[in-house]
Amino acid sequence: MEDKFQNKYRTQSNRLKNWDYSNPGYYSLTICTKDKINYFGSINNGVMQLSKIGVILETEWYKTPELRRDLNIILDVFVVMPNHFHCIIILNEIDSNNVDTKRHPSRDVCNTSLQSASNNLSAIVRGLKSAVTSKARKLNTSFAWQSNYYDHVIRNEKSLYEIRKYIMENPLKWELDEYNNSKIK
To answer: Fewer Cβ atoms within 10 Å of its own Cβ: the N or the C terminal residue of the chain?
Structure first.
């Protein structure tokens, strides 16, 4: 793959090659603010103290299953950190009897050409980022997300356990966190 596109550097995708992100499964996500700015609050004695923008993020995350009923989503563990958000989201099988096929094409894995671009993990992230951004900018006009996000397809119980543990313990380990932009380097 070329290193440049239109004379600009391109970022390598961190997505799993040949994986359909509308497939049912467990997914771990990390979404960061632009330049790792602490818009979402601060950590005091291992406890996250949400700012107003942090509350917006948490509220919008809780709304996700209701807003995306077409995807049959379950929210697993998550944590809002000062400048990023970790979560596990579960995409379940769709009950085709409850899907409006005019708006939501078949999720038949064998026929991915019919997949809607709005029925996948990226669409969930786009929707969350958009909702948070529109509300957060009313409080802080400089609020911005990092342009991409990190995802991981969770394939076994051991990985699920380790990721859940990492997410739940993340505030306790903030001083060592790779996303902590206040660390002395």
So the answer is: C
